[in-house]
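Incident log, structure service

09:12 report received: a user says their structure output differs between two submissions of the same chain.
09:20 pulled the input from the user's history:
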Amino acid sequence: MTAKNPKAVYACVNQGETFCPKEIIKQSICIDDIGRTLHQLL
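09:34 re-ran on a clean worker, output below:
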């Protein structure tokens, strides 16, 4: 669905196993460590 919609963003939050298909890499956000990511945003 992400590939068919240029305004869509694919988000993957998964400890140690993030993945996004190469066809939508420019529309993807992969977060491996949500705790560290949130800490950095603060």
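09:41 both user submissions now match this output. Likely a transient worker issue. Closing.
09:42 reviewer note: Helices lie at 34-41. The beta strands are 10-13, 28-31.
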